[in-house]
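Folded chain entry —
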Amino acid sequence: VVPFLKVNTGIEAKTLFDFLQRKHPGSFSDGQLRTFQRKVRRWRALEGPPKEVFFAQEHHPGRLCQSDFTFMNSLGITICGEPFDHLVYHFILTYSNWETGCVCFSESFESISHGMQTALWELGGVPEIHQTDRMSAAIQKPENPEEFTLRYRGLLDHYRLVGQYTQANSPNENGDIEQSHYRFKQAVDQALMLRGHRDFETREAYEQFIALVFKQRNSGRSKRFQEELLVLGSLPAKPLDACRRINDIAVSRGSTLRVANNTYSVDSRLIGETVDVRLYAEYFEIWYAQRCVERVPRLRGEGKHRIEYRHIIEWLLRKPGAFEHYRYRDDLFPSSRFRMAYDELKRHHSVQKAAKEYLK
């Protein structure tokens, strides 16, 4: 087995033992596995390749905070029985290990801004340095002369924070937050086991559950946390608006506009006009003539569409023939029952009449 151990340092002793049993049937009994594992471990300790050394770092109160996103889908959370795919923006002080976080759905700048500001205001002060990995929403590519994106630099400057990031392919440099990801998700998993099920009535109920887990984990860190509070910097007068502003977006003849590579409908009165958008982590606002005319839930991902039937229904009633082949027709079936109703109408009427009856 030594050649295998030399070539593949991560291969498990159990895998090798299974291989030996297949290659030499009847020669190795299951009861010999523990002895074999012990001998492999001994060989690795005495003759195996050197292992990576981790260098413990000195941490000082109020100096460094780290943050990152962690995926929570593996925990099987559901809201009213429906899978709840999400991330948690996770924030930690490296001296005291005080931590907090919030639910989000993408690693966008808006999520970073909302999560970091929420954490700092909950903390009640500002450390000296904020460290992340090389997340593209905050850190420029290596060939770019600027270290940080313009918006992330503005966020750091607003809180008088020094920005810091890890080297490429070196997640260990963000070790405190990486280790906290694991411990935090383990704590959530244990709390869910005690709770007896993983379903929540509302997202708010789940967020309260997460907040309680953070509170329980922080309860044993009060001594060091108090040391941190004494040396934290002061917060600014108010939070920075956690949004991206996109100006002069044209509303198309189809009463739609494009925001962050997705298509949304707007009131048909705005056709031919240009509007401004304030893009937040989970929604955006449409502004026209210095007024917020609508707040729209933001779609996750790209290449998607959200058509609100109230925006276009009057004109569809006038042009029912356009419904059958409308590019976004599926958005006008709010549930399967609506689709079933339309199919039933089509069985008894012409397509045009069925469409008109359905639209009414």
